[in-house]
Amino acid sequence: MDAIIKNEESGERILVCVSPSPSNRKVIAAAARMAEAFRASLTAIYVKPTGFESLSEEDRLRLESNLRFAEQNGASVATVIGDDIPVQVAEYAHVSDTTKIVVGQSGARRRHFWSKAPLTEQIILNAPDVDVYIIPDSAADLQQQKERFHISDQIRPTLKDTLITLLLLVAATGIGLLFMLFEFSEANIITVYILGVLVISVITVSPLYGVIGSLASVLLFNWFFIDPRFSFHTYEPEYAVTFAIMLISSLITGSLANRMKRNTRQAAREAFRAKVLFDTDQLLQNAKSADDIIRTMARQIITLLDRDVIVYPRSENGGLGDRIPFSAMHPSDEEEEPDADERELAERVFRTQKAAGFRMEDHGRAKAQYHAICQNSYCYGVIAIYLNGAAPEPFENSVLTSILGECALALENLRNAEEKERTAVMVRNEQLRSNLLRSISHDIRTPLTSISGNASNLLSHYRQLDGDTLQQIFSDIYDDSAWLIGLVENLLSISRIENGQMDLHLSLDVLGDVIDEALKHVDRNAVRHRITVAGSDDILLVNMDTRLITQVLSNLINNAVKYTPEGSEIVIRSGQDGESAFVTVCDNGPGIPDDVKPHVFEMFYTGQSTVADGRRGMGLGLALCRSIMEAHHGSITLRDNEPSGCCFTISLPAKEVPINE
Fold it and tell me: Which of 68, 57, 52, 70 is closest to 16 using CA atoms?
């Protein structure tokens, strides 16, 4: 593999080739030191051949170890697929703007002028604009990464493939005899046999049948179509050349078909893994909670590897939480027993943020690989993958790493969003507190000053004051005290609502009685207005908290009294509209401007309205009314009154009165 490292200060990018070679670690270590010296980014690249499955177990273990060593040295790992290693490395270097390539010197030497050049020379030829650094590595022979098949893989006959080969050869011979009957040329018959070899190579599993088909085609052509027929002799010497060309053409055709088939299978596997990664990104974007993200990650890893996984999410106290199993659901498989030291391994991975377990240097008897789900040195949990004794391929491991990274990024974004929400709530609460203190400091001063001044007058000049003056002073003290009591009641109610502590005590009550009770608690200045109550003769029963609805109506009536001149008319109407009971408080005062209407139910919004007594409100009453109505699953609305003034309407679900009542 090659490692590429990017550093914004130097702009240098170093690519190092990774292979199963025992001495490849020396090459990776040299590249890491070079990256540190140049302050460059490092990427480790592995060119995965189409015959990767044929690598020995020893080579696979060594390759995995080399890849981990590259990651531990700060390299990002890239895997590309292909058989032409120099071309793949050079192409990746050009695409990634690599400035330096580090590669081990192959032990192979060019023995003849027609033999293939060593790997290092081919990379230099394919990437002439990139600096290539060759690290002495006599044991490294990257050409061995090319497709290598064991003899047992080459000659693994099956009854199905044998029957397919025989049928296709018989079919080709039959078509050839038909061509001969119609006096077609021998070239057409040769083409039919070559086509048959191509089909055999594509359909059969083992490449051995392509070779058998090539040899059999030459023999059948000689037996059936060359004089003397039904023998392997020929009267014409030039047919020997024909047979040779036919055999070579058949072998080449079969070889190309086999290679195409392997490449197709490999491409299908890689496309599936890439789709898993793409689907993971899409699913994580739609996840709304940490549980959704963890479930998505686990299911995608199961889809990729078809293995059981265990997830240990981060607990609320910052430690490792309880295990959450996710099964690949193989009905025929026995349930995987957990490792004896599973929890200990998971705890260690959580602390160190480094993978451990199966196929790691310190795996011991672990049957699972343990990976940390981390982002920016913050660990969100650990995932254990039971691999059933088979480690993932390099490309699968790369996709797995990407899935874990996507999951960690999604959890990081979710955590940031929650922190932003908490910060916004704190800012909002702080703003509410600031507005409250500012309003209190400004508005509470007037009634307190009035109470204090009137009390001082009473203390100093009580005997000198006449009865009318004393009556006026007592009235002013009472009005200011009543205003302060109403303010405190609203503040307490708002505080309970904001903290979610407003408990409703619902009971069936007559709406007309609640209106009468509210009129008893209105401002005493209400006598200066004409208040009319108009309602239907029907008894309206409403399931409500009587005390709170009384407070709502009192606030609405008091607002009408405060914001309209003396002598204004205030009409209170009640009735039923469908399944809802309503109460409307209308006045014929100056009304509310259109630009103020959208804000009247906002907390601490007072608008530009002028209060009749000169005392400015704190903007709590209507906000409190809306909160109480929402708690009752009701509503409060505002509309203009014709020809002037405004109307506030509250609506509550009504209850029918039983006939026996």
Answer: 70
Q: Which two tokens stand for residue 442?
A: 């400004």
Confidence tier at 583 by pLDDT (50, 70, 90): very high
d(CA 456, CA 105): 103
Residue 251 burial (C-beta neighbours within 10 Å; 0-12, 13-18, 19+): middle
Q: Which two tokens stand for residue 186?
A: 């021998």
Amino acid 634 reads G
Cα 43 from Cα 32, distance rounded (Å): 10
Query: Distance of alpha carbon 178 from its chain centroid, rounded?
Result: 64
Instruction: Give the whole-angstrom CA distance, residue 410 versus residue 550.
Output: 49
Domain coordinates of the chain in residue numbers? 2-145, 152-264, 287-418, 445-495, 504-655
Cβ pair 652, 549 in contact under 8 A = yes
Q: Between β-strands 76-81 and 41-48, what pairing exists: parallel, antiparallel or unpaired?
A: parallel
Q: Which residues pair with 79 in a beta bridge?
A: 46
The 3-state secondary structure of 585-620 reads EEECCCCCCCCCHHHCCCCCCCCCCCCCCCCCCCCC
> Which DSSP category does 182 fall into?
T
3-state SS assignment for residue 77: strand
| Cβ-contact 207, 158 below 8 angstroms | no
Rounded-to-integer distance, Cα 189 and Cα 218, Å: 11
- Considering the domain delimited by 2-145, tell me its CATH architecture: 3-Layer(aba) Sandwich (3.40)
How far apart are the C-alpha atoms of 601 and 626, rounded to whole Å? 7
CATH architecture of 287-418: 2-Layer Sandwich (3.30)
What is the amino acid identity at position 399?
V
* Cβ-Cβ contacts under 8 Å for 151 (sequence gap 6 or more): none
pTM of the model: 0.48
Burial 310-337 (b: 16+ CB within 10 A, else e): bbbbbeeeeebeeebebebeeeeeeebe
504-655 under CATH 3.40.50.300, yes or no: no
SS3 state of residue 545: coil
Choice among 365-374, 417-426, 434-443, 593-602 with the minimum mean pLDDT: 434-443
Cβ(184)–Cβ(225) below 8 Å? no
Let me know: does 569 contact 585? Beta carbons within 8 Å.
Answer: no
Dihedral sign for Cα atoms in the order 262, 265, 269, 272 = positive
Q: What is the pLDDT of residue 571?
A: 92
Other beta carbons less than 10 A from residue 233's beta carbon? 10
Instruction: In whole angstroms, give the CA distance from residue 280 to residue 282.
Output: 5
Determine contact, residues 619/601, Cβ cutoff 8 Å.
no
Query: For residue 508, what are the β-bridge partners?
Result: 543
Which residue from 509, 506, 523 is spatially nearest to 583, judged by alpha carbons? Answer: 509
Sign of CA dihedral 629, 633, 634, 637: positive
Angle among Cα 184, 190, 193 to the nearest 5 degrees reads 120
Number of Cβ within 10 Å of residue 458's Cβ equals 14
Task: With beta carbons less than 8 A apart as the criterion, state whether 600 and 617 touch.
Answer: no
The label of the residue with tokens 């290693």 reads 85
pLDDT digits (tens, 9 = 90+) for 266-296: 676 677 777 777 888 888 888 888 888 888 8
Residue 508, burial from CB neighbour count under 10 angstroms (0-12, 13-18, 19+):
exposed
Distance CA 73, CA 165 (A): 52
* 8 Å CB contact between 465 and 473: yes
